[in-house]
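Quick one, tokens below. Sequence please?
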């Protein structure tokens, strides 16, 4: 259904949907249909912000076309692929609703669950996250590594980040404004919302298999996200290498005392090249590990102090002159 432009422009949306897109050409027609049915059934006006994170297929064409046909849909194309977490940030920067719902375009997050998220929001919760009860279509390795990551994250950080929770959630305007005030570059969005506090609640749901296409989240990207979560919200790696260095130093001191004692008791003792090589290799390895961990934090500091924008906007439809906090320039609506 096409809403007249005057109606869409005069209404401030009660709900904003932020949908990151990266090569989702096959899934978008189904998303348009199901999300259209959902927004028609809501108790207030809604907008849908499609954030194109540098797609290489026809996703951008389909998303821009949808925004031109229906003023409730908005299109924001980043100049290149900046990553899923940055794409979410870009969408939240321009969202106008009292409640912002973040969900993926592959429909593994069923749009119908949004009704349950809204019900919790009406009860007074500022952040309502969807918690996975099951995860269809995912390998045992991915399920095991995800479980391991959340257990490790819970032990290493003081921030309460719920297990089996992704980025599918509803965020109240108060929490959205707090999120937009956080300028860090290496973003772990679910951890940032956990750090905020506010009143939070969970809605259990069964995560479905993709409706079409293949996942764009490779193992390398998942590992990077895991590092962002651990390094961004914990100094435990630094403390770990401190204790490791202390243990190695004590071991080396003890070994040195043992060698001195042997030299005093046995004047014919000849030092062995093997033991020397092993010790030097071990200490060198520890030194490289500690330097690497410290380098992770130093690299993040360097990334922050450069002061570059989080993302660069390439094209927009139906977004007018509303500036994005992380954009390199004001957003300008594409004519036609």
């Amino acid at each position: 259904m096409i809403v007249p432009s005057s109606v869409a422009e005069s209404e401030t949306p009660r709900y904003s949907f932020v949908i990151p897109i990266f090569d989702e050409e096959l899934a978008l027609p189904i998303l348009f249909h199901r999300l259209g049915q959902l927004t028609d059934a809501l108790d207030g006006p809604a907008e849908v912000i499609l954030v194109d994170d540098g797609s290489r297929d026809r996703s951008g064409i389909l998303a821009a076309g949808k925004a031109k046909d229906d003023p409730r849909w908005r299109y924001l194309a980043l100049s290149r692929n900046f990553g899923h977490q940055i794409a979410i940030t870009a969408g939240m920067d321009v969202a106008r609703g009292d409640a912002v719902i973040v969900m993926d375009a592959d429909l593994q997050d069923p749009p119908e669950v949004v009704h349950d998220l809204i019900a919790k929001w009406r009860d007074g919760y500022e952040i309502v996250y969807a918690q996975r009860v099951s995860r269809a279509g995912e390998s045992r390795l991915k399920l095991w590594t995800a479980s391991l990551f959340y257990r490790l994250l819970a032990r290493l950080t003081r921030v309460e980040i719920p297990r089996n929770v992704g980025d599918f959630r509803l965020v109240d305007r108060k929490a959205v404004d707090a999120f937009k005030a956080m300028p860090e570059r290496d973003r772990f969005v679910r951890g940032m919302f956990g750090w905020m506090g506010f009143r939070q609640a969970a809605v259990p749901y069964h995560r479905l298999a993709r409706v079409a296409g293949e996942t764009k989240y490779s193992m390398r990207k998942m590992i990077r996200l895991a590092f962002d979560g651990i390094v961004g919200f914990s100094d435990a790696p630094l403390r770990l290498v401190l204790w490791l260095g202390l243990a190695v130093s004590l071991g080396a001191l003890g070994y040195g005392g043992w060698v001195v004692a042997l030299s005093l008791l046995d004047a014919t003792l000849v030092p062995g090249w093997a033991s020397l090589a092993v010790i030097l290799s071990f200490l060198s390895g520890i030194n490289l590990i500690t330097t690497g961990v410290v380098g992770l934090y130093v690299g993040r500091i360097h990334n922050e102090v450069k002061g570059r924008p989080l993302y660069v906007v390439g094209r927009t439809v139906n977004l007018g002159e509303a500036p994005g906090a992380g954009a390199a320039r004001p957003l300008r609506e594409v004519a036609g």
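The longest helix spans residues 273-305. Confidence is low (pLDDT under 50) at residues 1-10, 327-336.
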